[in-house]
Amino acid sequence: MILARIVGTVVATRKDPRLVSNKLLLVRPVDPSGTVDGGYLVAIDTVDAGVGETVLVVSGSSARMAAGLKDTPVDAAIVGIVDAVETDETSEP
Could you tell me the CATH number of the domain that includes residue 58? Predict the structure, then answer.
């Protein structure tokens, strides 16, 4: 899973028919402190997330296993909205 922040929306008026009626969002991976940690991804929204929210994203075959996406041509899916991230970085490995 990837921790990411939604930074925008993607509008595609012409697309594969299996993507019709699905919201596409632009996300950027972040580290647990919320600092940007990677490039942009376009992800299909399965949880009615919105711009500015921190979300959980799955990619590859896991994305196609998300609710209602079987046999849909997707490589990234938003599967959760994050309420909080807690870390214990004071522990030694």
Answer: 2.40.50.220
